[in-house]
């Protein structure tokens, strides 16, 4: 990146000190990221469950490679066809588009992913979709593997009974160009239930519905090579359910404040603030730009660099200051001890990582206080 001008093209270049990084920008604590990735890999391996890393959160081919190489992930999930195309072009060979695809142009592009060398898997919840997918796969001479999506309590997509799952599996298996690959039973809603016991109960209910469908499919001669689901909030329950064989956790790698607030079995936060399992690896690095009043300070990070629907960011490693108000370009901090001065830097932990990452072009990867890598947010904006 030697030709690039720091501050114009990029917020940082490898080798520079963290103090010279242009703010506000996304930074990754590479040590923390690697520990999270290795930890989940080992955790699932011990339980005999595969990890298919969900990349909608980071949209980064570099982070995904780490999840495959260091974490042992078997493949990836993308949420959108355009997102999947970025990863397929970057050389990823096993991609699940964890959504139904119902638009003719998108279906055609999905069928062509395999021409880039990627095993392609998609979700289906409607027999009418089977013929569309089959026609596209035949047109391109490719195979699309299909998971029947079961609504296991989320109330969004997915068939609503085991009987419907069997009917759909039968249609998929009979369709040229398609292959029945198993069941998808992801429930997003339960991921953020704060209390451990609530999450455990919701995960048990979802797993029971998934088990019923898997058994009905097996009884009709359809073995599920993949039974997929699971996210950061439910992974410990899903991993022990003996129903799922592939978990799709994504946010665990970076963590965010909304996930950090979840409570573990002992009633303690799951982030490291109280010694929990996962470390904050993603931050919005921000600088103090104004300190004209006693009791507060202003930083350069507002709505354009973070999502706020899960609340304002936490200030990492500081108990003396609090991020309390925001506008497009500014953040106001409570600073009762007047500890902050112009030029001071804060690591903000965003409320919700997925939409925050999508606001940026780059991740600045720090090893300690040094910039080691600058990674593009490869599929930024690929939401169609
Ligand atoms: C978002 C998503 C996940 C990952 O959830 P995290 O909370 O980020 O771990 C898994 N599966 C599906 C289908 C998803 O949409």
Give a structural overview.
The chain has 384 residues and is an alpha/beta fold. It contains ten helices and 17 strands. It has helices spanning 30-46, 61-69, 81-89, 104-112, 127-140, 162-174, 196-219, 235-239, 257-260, 353-357; strands spanning 25-29, 50-54, 75-78, 94-100, 119-124, 144-149, 178-184, 226-229, 246-247, 282-290, 295-299, 314-315, 322-326, 331-335, 345-349, 362-367, 370-376. The strands form two sheets. Strands 1, 10, 11, 12, 13, 14, 15, 16 and 17 form a nine-stranded mixed beta sheet that branches. The chain has an eight-stranded parallel β-barrel with strand order 2-3-4-5-6-7-8-9, surrounded by six helices. Helix 6 packs across helix 7. The longest helix is centred in the middle third of the chain and has 24 residues, at 196-219. The relative contact order is 0.16.
The assigned structural class equals alpha/beta
Instruction: List low-confidence stretches.
Output: none
Major β-sheet, in short?
Answer: 9 strands, mixed
The H/E string reads EHEHEHEHEHEHEHEHEHEEEEEEHEE
Mean pLDDT: 97
Give the overall form: globular
Radius of gyration: 22 Å
Bound molecules: pyridoxal-5'-phosphate
Provide a concise account of the structure shown.
The chain is of the alpha/beta class.
Q: Which secondary structure elements does this structure contain, and how are they paired or packed?
A:
Layout: E1 25-29, H1 30-46, E2 50-54, H2 61-69, E3 75-78, H3 81-89, E4 94-100, H4 104-112, E5 119-124, H5 127-140, E6 144-149, H6 162-174, E7 178-184, H7 196-219, E8 226-229, H8 235-239, E9 246-247, H9 257-260, E10 282-290, E11 295-299, E12 314-315, E13 322-326, E14 331-335, E15 345-349, H10 353-357, E16 362-367, E17 370-376
Helix pairs in contact: 3-4, 4-5, 6-7
This protein binds pyridoxal-5'-phosphate (PLP).
Residues 54, 56-57, 77, 79, 98, 186, 191, 231-232, 248-252 line the site of pyridoxal-5'-phosphate.
């Amino acid at each position: 990146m030697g030709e690039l001008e720091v501050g114009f093209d990029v917020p940082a270049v490898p080798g520079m000190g963290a103090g010279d990084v242009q703010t506000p920008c996304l930074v990754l604590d590479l040590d923390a990221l690697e520990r999270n990735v290795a930890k989940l890999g080992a955790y699932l391996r011990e339980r005999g469950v595969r990890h298919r890393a969900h990349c909608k959160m980071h949209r980064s081919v570099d982070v995904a490679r780490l999840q495959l190489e260091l974490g042992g992930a078997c493949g990836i999930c993308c949420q959108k066809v355009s997102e999947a195309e970025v990863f397929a072009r970057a050389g990823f060979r096993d991609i699940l588009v964890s959504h139904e695809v119902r638009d003719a142009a998108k279906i055609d592009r999905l069928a062509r992913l395999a021409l880039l060398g990627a095993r392609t898997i998609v979700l289906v919840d409607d027999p009418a979709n089977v013929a569309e997918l089959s026609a596209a796969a035949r047109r391109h001479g490719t195979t699309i593997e299909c998971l029947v999506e079961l609504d296991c309590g989320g109330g969004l997509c997915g068939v609503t009974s085991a009987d419907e799952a069997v009917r759909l599996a039968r249609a998929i298996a009979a369709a040229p160009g398609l292959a029945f690959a198993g069941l998808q039973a992801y429930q997003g809603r339960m991921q953020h239930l704060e209390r451990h016991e609530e999450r455990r109960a919701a995960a048990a209910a979802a797993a029971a519905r998934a088990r019923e469908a898997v058994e009905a499919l097996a009884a009709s001669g359809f073995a599920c090579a993949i039974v997929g689901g699971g996210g950061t909030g439910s992974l410990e329950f899903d991993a022990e359910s003996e129903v799922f064989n592939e978990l799709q956790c994504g946010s665990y790698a970076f963590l965010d404040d909304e996930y950090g607030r979840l409570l573990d079995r002992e009633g303690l936060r799951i982030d490291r603030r109280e010694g929990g399992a996962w470390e904050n690896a993603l931050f919005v690095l921000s600088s103090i730009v104004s300190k004209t009043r006693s009791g507060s300070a202003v930083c350069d990070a507002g709505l354009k660099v973070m999502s706020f629907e899960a609340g304002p960011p936490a200030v990492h490693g500081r108990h003396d200051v609090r991020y309390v108000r925001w506008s497009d370009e500014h953040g106001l901090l409570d600073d009762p001890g007047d500890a902050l001065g112009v030029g001071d830097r804060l690591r903000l932990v965003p409320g919700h990582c997925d939409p925050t990452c999508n606001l940026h072009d780059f991740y600045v990867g720090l090893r300690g206080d040094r910039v080691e890598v600058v990674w593009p947010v490869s599929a930024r904006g690929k939401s169609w």
